[in-house]
């Protein structure tokens, strides 16, 4: 047993001696360069692991002005509808546990209600790079008069570089579905897919220099469907006035784990 240990020690000393001789033969400049590359590589991989662990908890509420985004924001924050008549010209944002979640161990959500007015949509661009998910709100009651405008806005979001590259999931939230005359989520989905298909055709005819969008949508030669998007697009119903936000909360918690 002692002899085996002695042999191992001698072998280790021999390897150490040979290693030292090898290192001494390397020119100092090459040795420092190799150590520098090793250090930078180590820092790079540790940075990637740290970045992956730090997942965003930011969820954006977007959509046309009047779709009910701000009412949904307050419902998710504190269960209040604020009487249903709220128009925001500046982003409403806050970090909180969703209203129906009462455990202290739940991870807070950073919710941002982005103004829907066309002149203020540039605000959305500021938040997209750090978004974990997007809730695109559509007024299911007054849908048809606004279908074209809502589809154009959603088209711009779905072709945004940050949304495509980061594969940011989008929830098409059909709001105000508590009303009898509100359109169903299936009807809204189909109509918006048709409108986006028209937009694909019209915008593809414009020269590349005039197109503001970063990416094209869908599969070439096939009629557009949300299923063709690089990022996941799902459809849900909600009512900010009555507090029916379960499907929205489920979507948020799918991407901001509690």
Helices and strands, with pairings:
Layout: H1 2-25, H2 28-53, E1 58-63, H3 69-78, E2 92-96, E3 109-113, H4 122-127, E4 131-139, H5 143-158, H6 161-165, E5 170-175, H7 185-204, E6 233-237, H8 246-255
Parallel strand pairs: 1-3, 1-4, 4-5, 5-6
Antiparallel strand pairs: 2-3
Helix pairs in contact: 5-7
Description of the molecule:
This protein is an alpha/beta fold. It has two domains: 2-52, no CATH class; 56-255, Rossmann fold, CATH 3.40.50.300. The protein contains eight helices and six strands, in the order ααβαββαβααβαβα. The chain has helices spanning 2-25, 28-53, 69-78, 122-127, 143-158, 161-165, 185-204, 246-255, and strands at 58-63, 92-96, 109-113, 131-139, 170-175, 233-237. Strands 2-3-1-4-5-6 form a six-stranded mixed beta sheet, with helices on both faces. The chain is elongated, with a radius of gyration of 27 Å. It starts with a helix and ends with a helix. Residues 47-53 and 207-211 have low confidence and may be disordered.
